[in-house]
């Protein structure tokens, strides 16, 4: 969010400048790694943000899970925000953001499998079958893994654009399952998962609303500016 | 602070004390927030002086006593107990307190007293978490009379040789070491002798599948969301401790002392 707000502010001052900058992707990449770096620092006990607390394994699992959901919501926000602001170059970041969501989900699952369950596969399988919140979480992870596996550009070609797009629409299912997983895991206080659910619902609702508006011919403000910045992308949308 | 020997400690060779820092910063006390660090952060809202405890119900000598009068007759002793949370983590805590049974006898429970019901203070100013309907406030817990009179069951006023910090349930809390931690109700203001089994907060939560009245630590009966077979001991360990779990013991390792209380009961049904 901070990233998008600061980029948006910079681009408002200099339309299209950020979108063309060769530093854009590396900068976003580095920013997405900040939480992981924080986690490593905490694990190493060097944390400038405090230690891992009394229950380090729980902290690691919560931390990585939180960031997986946040990254997923940010990735899902790219298209609506792009349509709303006309900042077409945002689309260039979508794949990377989605892959970072998968990356934090991998950390989350590894911490669960390795640290929480100590690689006791029998017990893990029993957990997946028996405990609904783990079933749902794993389903979300499987969807994200399928999307990550088909994210390279050559996979778009191999699958065919249409089929690939249909497959990648399931990212919304992954998001819904992830939020549901969080809600089911929480003992009684649903505040956090409800905030995530509200954001997800808003993002889901934004897509048909925005395309409706576009079809009525009301072009979003700022589109002209970004057209100069990245005509290829405008053309594709 | 030297730890005195107590015949009731019943610790094993691998039961190291959980550091004071961890005992006092990793708490479930939803009235002070649902995050584990919240109770320590918001504990200062709770004012424990003055404090009084009302005792009523099926007893010959009901009454409302100041905290000082309530604890005055009882010599304080140290009890080092394992504390097993239903979330599959555990600690070892050196409590300071006295047997609950000694306190209850002063109020002369009648023959109708089959259960004891406990209530936490209800005050949205002092316990801001009560503004959210997370549970049905005030928090209520209960014990069967024989569980309440058992010598392992104590009322605690301190830990690590100091007064209880607010996040740990000051000024007066229950400690029942063979039951899951949520049974050990915090910041008690009311104790009622009842004939009927009291409805406890977690048993009343949701569709009632969450927790039962007894909530004895039992590795063979799973919680809907957790296996209870193993646990993670929080003892301020090293990086290696990230990869360690231990088997959960029946009745949290106090089986010898308390198994008789449940002779003939189906503990799968009465979980």
TrEMBL record, chain A:
Q: Could you tell me which InterPro entries the record lists for this protein? A: Fe3_Rdtase_TM_dom, MsrQ-like
Q: State the free-text cofactor note.
A: Binds 1 heme b (iron(II)-protoporphyrin IX) group per subunit. Binds 1 FMN per subunit.
Q: Which GO terms describe its biological process?
A: protein repair
What GO annotations for molecular function exist for this entry?
Answer: electron transfer activity; FMN binding; heme binding; metal ion binding; oxidoreductase activity, acting on diphenols and related substances as donors
Q: Which cofactor does it need?
A: heme b; FMN
Which parts of the chain span the membrane according to its record? 96-113, 133-150, 171-188, 194-210
Which compartments is it annotated to reside in? Cell membrane; Membrane
Membrane-related topology note: Multi-pass membrane protein
In this chain, the stretch annotated as Disordered covers 215-237
One Gene Ontology cellular component: plasma membrane
**Which part of the chain is the Ferric oxidoreductase domain?**
65-178
Keywords for this protein:
Cell membrane, Electron transport, Flavoprotein, FMN, Heme, Iron, Membrane, Metal-binding, Transmembrane, Transmembrane helix, Transport
Q: What job does this protein perform? A: Part of the MsrPQ system that repairs oxidized periplasmic proteins containing methionine sulfoxide residues (Met-O), using respiratory chain electrons. Thus protects these proteins from oxidative-stress damage caused by reactive species of oxygen and chlorine generated by the host defense mechanisms. MsrPQ is essential for the maintenance of envelope integrity under bleach stress, rescuing a wide series of structurally unrelated periplasmic proteins from methionine oxidation.
Tell me the protein family, please.
Answer: Belongs to the MsrQ family.
Quaternary structure and partners = Heterodimer of a catalytic subunit (MsrP) and a heme-binding subunit (MsrQ).
* Identification of the protein by name: Protein-methionine-sulfoxide reductase heme-binding subunit MsrQ
Taxonomic source organism: Caenispirillum salinarum AK4
Q: Which gene encodes it?
A: msrQ
Automatic annotation (TrEMBL), chain B:
Q: What class of enzyme is it?
A: oxidoreductase
- Catalytic reaction list: L-methionyl-[protein] + a quinone + H2O = L-methionyl-(S)-S-oxide-[protein] + a quinol; L-methionyl-[protein] + a quinone + H2O = L-methionyl-(R)-S-oxide-[protein] + a quinol
Binding sites annotated in the UniProt record for Mo-molybdopterin = 27, 30-31, 85, 120, 168, 173, 184-186
Enzyme Commission no: 1.8.5.-
Which segment of the chain is annotated as a signal peptide? none
Q: Origin, by domain of life?
A: Bacteria
Question: What's noted on cofactor binding?
Answer: Binds 1 Mo-molybdopterin (Mo-MPT) cofactor per subunit.
Q: Which GO terms describe its molecular function?
A: metal ion binding; molybdopterin cofactor binding; oxidoreductase activity, acting on a sulfur group of donors, quinone or similar compound as acceptor
Q: Oxidoreductase molybdopterin-binding domain: from which residue to which, for each copy? A: 47-202
Keywords (alphabetical) are:
Metal-binding, Molybdenum, Oxidoreductase, Signal
Q: Describe the processing and modification events after translation.
A: Predicted to be exported by the Tat system. The position of the signal peptide cleavage has not been experimentally proven.
What are the GO BP annotations of this UniProt entry?
Answer: protein repair
Q: Which cofactor does it need?
A: Mo-molybdopterin
Q: Which spans of this chain does the record mark as coiled coil?
A: none
Known partners and oligomeric status = Heterodimer of a catalytic subunit (MsrP) and a heme-binding subunit (MsrQ).
Task: Say which family it is in.
Answer: Belongs to the MsrP family.
Q: What is the stated purpose of this protein?
A: Part of the MsrPQ system that repairs oxidized periplasmic proteins containing methionine sulfoxide residues (Met-O), using respiratory chain electrons. Thus protects these proteins from oxidative-stress damage caused by reactive species of oxygen and chlorine generated by the host defense mechanisms. MsrPQ is essential for the maintenance of envelope integrity under bleach stress, rescuing a wide series of structurally unrelated periplasmic proteins from methionine oxidation.
**Protein name, per record:** Protein-methionine-sulfoxide reductase catalytic subunit MsrP
Q: Provide the species name.
A: Caenispirillum salinarum AK4
Q: Which lineage is the organism of this entry classified under, starting from the top rank?
A: Bacteria, Pseudomonadati, Pseudomonadota, Alphaproteobacteria, Rhodospirillales
Q: Which gene encodes it?
A: msrP
């Amino acid at each position: 969010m901070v990233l998008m707000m600061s980029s948006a502010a910079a681009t408002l001052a200099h339309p299209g400048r950020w979108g063309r900058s060769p530093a854009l992707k590396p900068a976003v990449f580095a920013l997405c790694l900040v939480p992981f770096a924080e986690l490593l620092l905490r694990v190493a006990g060097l944390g400038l943000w405090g230690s891992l607390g009394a229950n380090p394994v729980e902290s690691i699992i919560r931390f990585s899970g939180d960031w997986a959901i946040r990254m997923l919501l940010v990735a899902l926000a790219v298209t609506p925000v792009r349509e709303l602001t006309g900042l077409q170059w945002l689309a260039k970041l979508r794949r990377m953001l989605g892959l970072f969501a998968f990356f934090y989900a991998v950390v989350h699952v590894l911490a669960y499998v390795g640290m929480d369950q100590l690689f006791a596969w029998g017990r893990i399988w029993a957990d997946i079958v028996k405990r609904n919140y783990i079933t749902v979480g794993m389903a979300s992870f499987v969807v994200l893994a399928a999307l990550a596996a088909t994210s390279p550009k050559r996979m778009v070609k191999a699958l065919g654009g249409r089929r690939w797009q249909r497959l990648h629409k399931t990212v919304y299912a992954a998001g819904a399952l992830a939020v549901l997983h969080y809600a089911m895991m929480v003992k009684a206080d649903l505040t956090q998962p409800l905030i995530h659910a509200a954001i997800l619902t808003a993002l889901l609702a934004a897509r048909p609303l925005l395309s409706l508006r576009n079809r009525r011919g009301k072009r979003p403000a700022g589109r002209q500016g970004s057209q100069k910045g990245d005509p290829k992308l405008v053309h594709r949308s | 602070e030297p730890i005195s020997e107590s015949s009731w400690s019943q610790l094993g060779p691998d039961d190291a004390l959980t550091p004071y820092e961890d005992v006092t910063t990793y708490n479930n006390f939803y009235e002070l927030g649902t995050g584990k660090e919240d109770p320590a952060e918001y504990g200062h809202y709770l004012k424990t002086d003055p404090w009084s405890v009302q005792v009523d119900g099926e007893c010959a000598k009901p009454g409302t006593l100041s905290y000082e009068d309530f604890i005055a007759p009882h010599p304080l002793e140290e009890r080092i107990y394992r504390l097993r949370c239903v979330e599959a983590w555990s600690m070892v805590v050196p409590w300071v307190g006295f047997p609950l049974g000694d306190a209850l006898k002063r109020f002369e429970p009648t023959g109708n007293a089959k259960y004891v019901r406990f209530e936490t203070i209800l005050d949205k100013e002092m316990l801001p978490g009560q503004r959210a309907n997370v549970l049905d406030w005030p928090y209520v817990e209960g014990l069967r009379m024989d569980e309440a009179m058992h010598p392992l069951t104590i009322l605690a006023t301190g830990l690590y040789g100091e007064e209880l910090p607010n996040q740990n349930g000051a000024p007066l809390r229950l400690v029942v070491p063979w039951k899951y931690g949520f049974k050990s109700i915090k910041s008690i203001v009311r104790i009622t002798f009842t004939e009927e089994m009291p409805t406890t907060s977690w048993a009343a939560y949701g569709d009632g599948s969450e927790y039962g009245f007894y909530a004895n630590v039992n590795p063979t009966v799973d919680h809907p969301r957790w296996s209870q077979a193993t646990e993670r001991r929080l003892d301020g360990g090293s990086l290696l401790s990230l990869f360690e779990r231990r088997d959960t013991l029946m009745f949290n390792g106090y089986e010898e002392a308390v198994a008789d209380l449940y002779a003939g009961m189906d503990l799968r049904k009465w979980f």
